[in-house]
Structures are given as structure tokens and as C-alpha cells.
Amino acid sequence: MALLFKKWIPLSGKGMTNIRQGNDKRESPNNIQLVIYMRKTQSAGGVVVGPDGRILITNQNGNSWSLPKGHIDPGEDEVAAAKREIYEETGVRPENLRLIKKLGSYQRHKISKTGSDDKTEIKTIHMFLFQTEQTALSPTDPHNPKAVWLGKEKVAERLTHPRDKEFFRKVISELSKISSKRGR
Question: pTM of this prediction?
Fold first, then answer.
């Protein structure tokens, strides 16, 4: 699905000379219409808690850090997509992931290859909480060449995108519940 945005912009620095009819702006010789298409995509991923309570994050394109996640393939449900993406980006096998709960969803722009927001795509990201006993990491996705375990107090500062940081900070209390259950 694509969203379409239209915006009139002046061709000269002297301002717009539009003919207005209500909220409608009509083309004049001094203006062009900028049309931007934005894809809306669905992604799924997870906050993966390791045996020592550390959290798994992944490096994308060598220029940004995020929680493991990616596009949901046609016919795939959110949990299956999350497990597949975690495996591709970190090497943690799906059978070694134990689903705890859905953490929620949020939206953000795709990160471009330069590390900035790619405004041509807006993602809805569905995140799940998983536990694993697997510690060995070996990403299979060449666009996500590195994965690391971090203490939960360091994850938000390492994540690149502000919306990823915000989401992680909102769910960090859920991770404390996991850690306290392990100690029992």
C-alpha cells in the first residue's frame, strides 16, 4: 500500500502565486507540484532476552543498530516473521526462541543506507518478547552483518532510531519481570 502526498512548492524565491478555491491550490506558472509516494509496510521482530539477561541487538548496513526485525512475508504471521527475522539477523534459531508475549506495535520510517530516515517507507513494527538459552550469534543476512548481546541498561543508548529507543524504554519494565522470574 502506498500513501500519496501532494505539496505545492514555489519555483522562485518570491513565494507562491496560487489561485485558491477553498483549500484547493491551482497550478500557476510559478509553481510545481511535488508528489511523494510513501510505502506502508508491516514488520515483526523481538526483544530477545538471553540466559544472562542481556538483550540482543543487530547492526544494519554497518551504520545503524536496532532490535532484530524485518518485513512480514505474504502468508506469514507476525510471530513466524519475528522468529525468521531474528534468525536471519542474529543466528538464533527459531526453535531456540520461547515466546513470552506481544509487547506492542509502533511506527517509524525505514532507516536509509546513510543512517537517516527514508521517508519513502513507513513501517508498522510488531514486537514480541522472547527468551533464549542460545548465546552463539551468527547472522545469515548480509545487510545485518553483526549482532551483539548488551546489558538492558545499555540497549536504548546504542539503538540508532529515536522511535526504537522510545519503544525499548517503554517495555524495559517487562524485562525486569522476566529476570525476576528466572531467579525463582
Answer: 0.77
